[in-house]
């Protein structure tokens, strides 16, 4: 917690008084400003309903990933352009930079992150900074640093400043000993990737901070998310995005999972809407702090067949990546999201045919604009 962090800094500032054997500790004043609150188990006093507040001031970390830009666009329509700040450690493209506030933010830099929250009067924080499953396995030390140490900074700052905090979780938070069809909200979770382990850690730490310090922590376990306006980012479910790009560009697709590998999936519009809905839900309606959300489940073969209804000449081959296949075989096949549907009214809009039609409509419009630009 911040109090512990500040105390350790104070101890490191111990000075040796000249001429005697005693030590004098110089303690920073700011460590006195935060004391962990002893709260009851419901800890709902930070969760003011949306109708009782002005528009939230929002910060999105890891904002240049698959979901951050889309979420910023949705939130800016609802709360106003200048009330939503997108952040990342990478340089944004012009389209992102000029669409609304963007700042540099490194979640491993506690001081920088704290200054951003204070200077911009942040009230809602969406924490999307993370290394995904396959990328994380290729660089475990970095994944551990970003996904776990970075989360600790986020939790401390959110608790200190009474933020409403959203941290996404994933189908990767389950493992081979979890029930797979369907997978309920509460069951055994023993993931075998650093990504999954870090997400279970995030779920449990978020719940702990809620019950111990009153942090308004909210979390959704996302299925594989499919979107047309972002490139695959190193996840095991990214084949379901790549197939559309390859179908349009080359007419050939090579899948790195077995054709019968069934996984839960969701179109990005449903995902972003669910994220906003859980953040706006009254605290008293939430029976838990981490929910499954579902929409559809399909295999690579089923997706390819649906894609071929639009592009019959698409050629599909399978070259199985043993690492990604092992990850997929440990994940849920179908999500049980009955609690989300009951507690805060979750309902998806897109099934598989709708998803495929929407993806090709978007990619076709982008191709048309590109061709016109090239001609001009």
From TrEMBL:
Pathway: Amino-acid degradation; L-threonine degradation via oxydo-reductase pathway; glycine from L-threonine: step 1/2
CDD domains associated with the record: TDH_SDR_e
EC number: 1.1.1.103
Domain of life: Eukaryota
Residue stretches making up the NAD-dependent epimerase/dehydratase domain: 58-294
Enzyme class at the top of the EC tree: oxidoreductase
Alphabetical list of InterPro entries matching this protein: Epimerase_deHydtase (IPR001509), NAD(P)-bd_dom_sf (IPR036291), NAD(P)_epim/dehydratase (IPR051225)
Reactions the enzyme catalyzes: L-threonine + NAD(+) = (2S)-2-amino-3-oxobutanoate + NADH + H(+)
Gene Ontology biological process terms from the UniProt entry: L-threonine catabolic process
Gene Ontology terms, MF aspect: L-threonine 3-dehydrogenase activity
Gene3D superfamilies for this protein: NAD(P)-binding Rossmann-like Domain
Family: Belongs to the NAD(P)-dependent epimerase/dehydratase family.
Cited function: Catalyzes the NAD(+)-dependent oxidation of L-threonine to 2-amino-3-ketobutyrate, mediating L-threonine catabolism.
Protein's name in the database: L-threonine 3-dehydrogenase, mitochondrial
């Amino acid at each position: 917690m911040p109090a512990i962090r500040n105390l350790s800094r104070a101890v490191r500032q111990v000075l040796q008084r000249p001429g005697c054997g005693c030590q004098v500790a110089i303690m920073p004043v700011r460590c006195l400003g935060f004391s962990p609150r002893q709260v009851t188990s419901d800890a709902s006093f930070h969760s003011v309903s949306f109708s009782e507040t002005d528009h939230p001031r929002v910060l999105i970390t890891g904002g240049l990933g698959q979901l951050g830009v889309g979420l910023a666009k949705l939130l800016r329509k609802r709360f106003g352009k200048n009330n939503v700040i997108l952040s990342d450690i990478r340089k944004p493209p012009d389209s992102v930079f000029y669409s609304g506030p963007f700042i540099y933010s490194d979640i491993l830099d506690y001081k920088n992150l704290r200054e951003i929250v204070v200077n911009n009067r942040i009230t809602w924080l969406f924490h999307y900074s993370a290394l995904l499953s396959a990328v994380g396995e290729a660089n475990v030390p970095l994944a551990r640093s970003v996904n776990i140490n970075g989360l600790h900074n986020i939790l401390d700052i959110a608790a200190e400043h009474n933020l409403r905090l959203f941290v996404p979780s994933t189908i990767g938070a389950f493992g081979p000993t979890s029930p797979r069809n369907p997978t309920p909200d509460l069951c055994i979770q023993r993931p075998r990737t650093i990504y999954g382990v870090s997400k279970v850690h995030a779920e449990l730490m978020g719940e702990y901070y809620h019950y111990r310090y009153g942090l308004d922590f909210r979390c959704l376990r996302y299925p594989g998310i499919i979107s047309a306006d972002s490139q695959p980012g190193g996840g095991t479910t990214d084949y379901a995005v790549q197939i559309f790009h390859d179908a349009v560009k080359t007419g050939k697709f090579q899948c790195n999972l077995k054709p019968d590998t069934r996984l839960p999936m969701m179109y990005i519009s449903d995902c972003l809407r669910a994220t906003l809905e859980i953040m706006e839900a009254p605290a008293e309606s939430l029976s838990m702090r981490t929910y499954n959300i579902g929409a559809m489940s399909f295999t690579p073969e089923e997706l390819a067949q649906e894609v071929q209804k639009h592009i019959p000449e698409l050629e599909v081959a399978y070259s199985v990546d043993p690492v990604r296949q092992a990850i997929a075989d440990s994940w849920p096949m179908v999500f049980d999201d009955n609690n989300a549907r009951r507690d805060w009214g979750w309902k998806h809009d897109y099934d598989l045919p709708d998803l495929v039609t929407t993806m090709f409509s978007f990619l076709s419009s982008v191709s048309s604009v590109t061709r016109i630009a090239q001609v001009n």
